[in-house]
Amino acid sequence: MRIDTVWHNARLATLDPVLPKLGVIERGAIACTDGRIVFAGPEQDLPASDAARFDCEGRWITPGLIDCHTHLVHAGDRAREFAQRLGGATYEEIARAGGGILSTVRAVRAASQAELVTQSLPRLDALLAEGVTTVEVKSGYGLDREAEWRMLAAARELGRQRPVGITTTYLGAHAVPPEFAGDADGYVDWICTEMLPALAAERLADAVDVFCETVAFSPAQTSRIFDTAQRLGLPVKLHADQLSDFGGAALAARYGALSADHLEYASDEGAAAMAVAGTVAVLLPGAFYTLRETHAPPISALRRHGTPIALATDCNPGSSPLTSPLLAMNMAATLFRLTVEECLAGFTRVAAQALGLQAEIGTLQPGKFCNLAIWDIGAPAELIWRIGFNPLYRRVWRGA
Fold first, then answer.
1. Residue 53 and residue 375: Cα distance in Å, rounded?
2. Residue ranges of the alpha helices (H) in the chain?
3. Is the pLDDT assigned to residue 57 strictly greater than 90?
4. pTM tops 0.70
5. Which of 6, 258, 354, 356 lies at a CB distance of 3.0 to 4.6 Å from 68, suitable for a disulfide?
């Protein structure tokens, strides 16, 4: 076996699903060749080689973290709306008054692709500094062809400027743009006939998302977009049941969606349907916290039905200006009562599943990309317990 690099004298949290809990291996080692793991196990079983060796001095290694739901690429900020919410305004009131998503749409439409990249890089760097090695980036703040295209192209460019995996999601159905005011059905027609075929042809988007909610798009409109996306071979995912039980979880399951995200008001039936379909529940505690919500996602139902649970920052300018996966895990544990194992799996193994990338990333197993986070901690629980403290020692992306 040819080996390029070895990390040894480590404690591994492999997240291997066939091992109990975090898949811990004491006195472990990882070997990498051409950017992929070729060995992850007890150091005593490591094949002999003359590869470069890094002594981890007993530190913990987890898979590189995966942020599977972000709106990382955007322009401007919404600090004024934050102040309005502190004064008592609701998310819906701000949106209906022309703020919210549409205020960011105006900023994005005025920005060039280069400006979008420049403004987004500091947010990306903050994620990388906490061990993130893969990021999903949504569009949805352009809402016309040119601006949505710039957002998706900017996301791809981020992956060229930094050592990180980037996946892109088209979220044109985020809000109805001003030029289609009062004609949501017409806008959905335009998405289905103009944008989705062009995106599929250019391979600029890896998936399609919809905001299915009373203030956004109906289940019928969502279904039209999903039908078109699936005919074009594009996977789907859904912003579901965030503000009300709108049937989003069950709808996502019916289409075999990669994930349904938010889910504060998802029903027991929706959770059960997702489990059967293999649709991941992506919980977003940053938005729950920022919006001061009180109706938590149905954690007990998700557990009871075996629905896989992922976590993400939901980094966005309005409802979750969060660029810390470590804080997101603490929020999930504190606000939703997730366990240490659920939090770490939610930002690694299950997050990979939410992106359809579980064969490539998310666990420390041979054949997968060598994406590692090496931590100065005594136990994995420290990653969730601490607030405002970053114990990352080293981040490795594809072996480097």
1. 17
2. 79-86, 91-96, 101-109, 113-128, 145-161, 184-190, 196-202, 219-231, 248-254, 268-277, 285-290, 299-305, 325-336, 340-346, 349-354, 381-385
3. yes
4. yes
5. 354
